[in-house]
Amino acid sequence: MLDVIVIGAGVTGCATARELSRYDLKAAVLEREEDVCCGTSKANSAIIHAGYDAEPGTLKARMNVQGNRMMDALSKELDFPFKRNGSLVLCFDEDNLPGLEELRERAEANGVPDVRIVAGDEIKALEPNLSPDVKAVLYAPTGGIVCPFKMTIALAENSYVNGVDFHFNTEVTDITRTAEGYLVHTAKGDFAARCVVNAAGVYADQFNNMVSAHKLHITPRKGEYILMDKKAGDFVTHTIFQQPTRLGKGILVTPTVRGNLLAGPTAEDITDKEEVCTTGEGLAQVVDKARLSAEKIPLNMAITSFAGLRACEEKGDFVLGEAEDAEGFYNAAGIDSPGLSSAPAIGLFLAEQIAGKLNAVKKTGFISERKDIPCVAESTPEEIAALIASDPAYGNVICRCEMVTEGEIVNAVRRPLGAKSLDGVKRRTRAGMGRCQSGFCSPRVMEILSRELQVSPMELTKAGGESYLLTGTTKEFI
């Protein structure tokens, strides 16, 4: 029997697994997809909120501010990209200045440092490309940007090397309470555990409702985005918000840690928990509203669009901790924005609760640090020479747009919880994320995957499941 099962290998589940791996506990993560970071964690704004937006006293406010404070040390320990670029909230009408002041007061109540309202020429000094209609901005210097793929993968890899098992393609179908804890039924058999962590994103309400009379209801909220080329990456340096509404923080414009420019998301409540398609109407909304913040935003440099789902619980706050009537069942439900920012704090919160429940002790020999795949595109000539000397494959460029080499892709496949699909390589190395969107490099990445995994190219997938990349051969080779 396991001590703990974590359902879901998104950023919240992996952050919880990493904190649990500090203890002498037998833990496992069950994930229905073929890899970590396949749901909400891979399709979001990639920002670390400062913490001024959430209502004081809520779990969102507490976890956001604590998670933000943890990010510098965590990114250094686990070697993933993070930058404090600061954020601005734009006010276009002097009649709405009281709303901006309310956000500043929330920031103060939540413990967010150095937040202030800026007006006049200082606005242009902060961001020259903003609309001239902006009357004032709320400036929060502790806001940041992060790579959500790298962050989630880093948390998962570190959990794994510290003893947490990961079971992919393992969809949970039911949960049964037992005298010892819980029996988690999956498509690949049953798993018994004393405690369960429900970090299942938009499906977290279903798992809670299997064991608790206190029902949850999660609505998927779809957000559509437009990603622009790196040539547009310096259009703004801060993360630019518009004053928030009931549905969220509006259309943002932000640089990414890898130098692109991102605009979005929309906010549409839907019923289908698998609907992540973009629409002409949604992308037109992104265009129109992004131009309110900055009329000259270079949307003609768009290289792709995408959509993600946020798990919105009807009461509007995170649902965290042990269910009142289901001992040993811990929820991490309704983790919508600012979920990415809050994940490290949520993981710590749940792990401490579970360790206390199970009287677990900290293990000796916990490995706190992890090194990422070397990035040739961001290395100095001396560093590149050293990499090539250690392995000539680091001199063989596979993805021209992002300057990703064969050595990086091989590293991505061979490392703990390595890539098994085209998207798995993309999330770990950025191969295919550039201007041509894998038009050039995908066949070459497939060759490397086939060789490293020792499988036929016919078995390779884009993202696991039935997403096969090849349907047949055009000629037979002798």
From TrEMBL:
Keyword Oxidoreductase tagged: yes
Claim: Transferase is one of the keywords in the record: no
EC top class named in words: oxidoreductase
Domain BFD-like [2Fe-2S]-binding: 397-450
EC number: 1.1.3.15
Top-level taxon: Bacteria
Annotated transmembrane regions: none
Keywords: Oxidoreductase
GO MF term set: (S)-2-hydroxy-acid oxidase activity
SUPFAM superfamilies with a match to the protein in the record: FAD/NAD(P)-binding domain
Residues in FAD dependent oxidoreductase domain copies: 3-352
Entry protein name: FAD/NAD(P)-binding oxidoreductase
